[in-house]
Amino acid sequence: MTFEVGRPVAVVTGASSGIGASTAEKLVARGWQVIGVGRDRQRCAAARTRIMAAVRDGGAFDMVRADFTLMREVARVATEIASRTTRLDVLVNNAGGVRDRRIVTAEGTEATFATNHLAPFLLTRELMPLLRKSAAGLPPGSVRVLAVSSSAHRATEGLDWADPQSLNDFHPATAYCRAKLANILFTRELARRAAPDGIIAQAMHPGVVASNFAAHGDTAMQAHMAAADTVSPDEPAETLVWLATDPEGGRHGGRYFYRKTVETPATVALDDVTADRLWTESERLLADFGF
Known about the structure:
Elements: E1 9-13, H1 18-29, E2 33-38, H2 41-53, E3 60-65, H3 71-84, E4 90-93, H4 111-136, E5 143-148, H5 172-194, E6 199-204, H6 219-227, H7 234-245, E7 256-258, E8 261-263, H8 272-288
Parallel strand pairs: 1-2, 1-4, 2-3, 4-5, 5-6, 6-7
Antiparallel strand pairs: 7-8
Helix pairs in contact: 1-2, 1-7, 3-4, 4-5, 5-8
């Protein structure tokens, strides 16, 4: 499928279920063209049927599959996206999750860090030419990169530069909290670096969502989710669609939102020196992996 040049295009990762599927559904109902990214074949097929049924006003939907623990899969997806559209207005880096143990891939990535941080970092980097091209023909702030972070970032004191992937001292919750902190730091640094191109980056906290997020988490995480007062994926999806389409989402990049309201993240998430270092360390890690 090749998308029309005259209609806005969004890429939504983690679109096979939960927040991502709801976000894609709401965007196509507004006439947007959306490329969803998902991992599981059956969930992708079910999401495609659901989202296609919501298409209105010239919208369109396509789905690509990838395992975001593997950087070669992320790079492939970026190439596929660039082959299907000549414009990209919004990138929603939503895919993520938590694991019950340390899982190291054949590439040498740790699954939690890879899925939650390295994958969106690499995908955004590889799609920057398309984002810049789109931004050049639109008013400043029209093109946006959105990150789904979490209030879990508040539960860590910072990143471990000696072991950024937590390979040597792994704890599932700590690894996840650090990865969610990385989402905000990446957003802040991306906002700074992309501002001259007219591209805006924002982060958001979705709340505790009733989804399959913790399906691969440890016993403590699954118990926490089972006991938590959760919200429907539609609630954070509303905020993501608002950030993608409302003028407010296109102003003052590098902010952190919850329920369409700006919040102040943890102090460590506001450290621009740390944000710059994370960018550099992420590039170094990807280079080590051959990307």
